[in-house]
Amino acid sequence: xxxxxxxxxxxxxxxxxxxxxxxxxxxxxxxxxxxxxxxxxxxxxxxxxxxxxxxxxxxxxxxxxxxxxxxxxxxxxxxxxxxxxxxxxxxxxxxxxxxxxxxxxxxxxxxxxxxxxxxxxxxxxxxxxxxxxxxxxxxxxxxxxxxxxxxxxxxxxxxxxxxxxxxxxxxxxxxxxxxxxxxxxxxxxxxxxxxxxxxxxxxxxxxxxxxxxxxxxxxxxxxxxxxxxxxxxxxxxxxxxxxxxxxxxxxxxxxxxxxxxxxxxxxxxxxxxxxxxxxxxxxxxxxxxxxxxxxxxxxxxxxxxxxxxxxxxxxxxxxxxxxx
Length: 324
Description:
By secondary structure, the protein is of the alpha/beta class. The chain folds into 2 domains: 11-171, P-loop containing nucleotide triphosphate hydrolases (Rossmann fold); 216-315. Helix content is 51%, strand content 8%.
């Protein structure tokens, strides 16, 4: 990855970060704020690499550098840890724990290993345990010299004001259609024109949603979701078709992609809806967001999950149909 413009659609945020790294008075804590799927995860790791990189050296791998510490969801148990080690899909714990924060704080008692700077990535900070948030606050209030924090936040409003107030905010905005197209062409060059166009239309500015749309072949599912949202589904026919299209045993990635697509469909529908319907859309979106946070850690029945997604879309349909 080249320094300068490595992130399609997020060049302004990258330039702001590079300017801060080069300055003499760099802020010690940063909040990477924006919806899921905008590239904050990759940005945080590249930003940490840029921070600790020695002059003239290549950008290091954030997951292998001794001065970059990534706090994220751990495997749920030993069996899931084995799956992770084998490169298989695995379930995670529901939160980033206070034990992880304490282990990080123990490292902060020593100097950085290779240079003068160290980066702590918390991804996502939204999912810190309450006790972990309070422990983190102490480190943010009195950061060791040379230590910088990057907090990834999909819903920054869930963080304590005392956390937010100690961070400089980097905002990540939705991408325009040309930028989404460039991301798909770069990451999935095999995608044909029709798939790219459908993914762009469904993405609502999220490159993550667009890439999942193409990878998981969600075109028909997208059309069914739109029909449920705009026609209702009083006889459950469309929800049945949705479940059939998802497949008997869809993988976890396909389930998560369908959840994100449903949230995106609702978000796209919201601005032009009448006030009364907006409230139903917001309620359904909130329920889908909760499901999205639970799905990686809960062992949901795939069939029931897709029916729940369909039901939430139906609850926001016009004319209104109460979800069953």
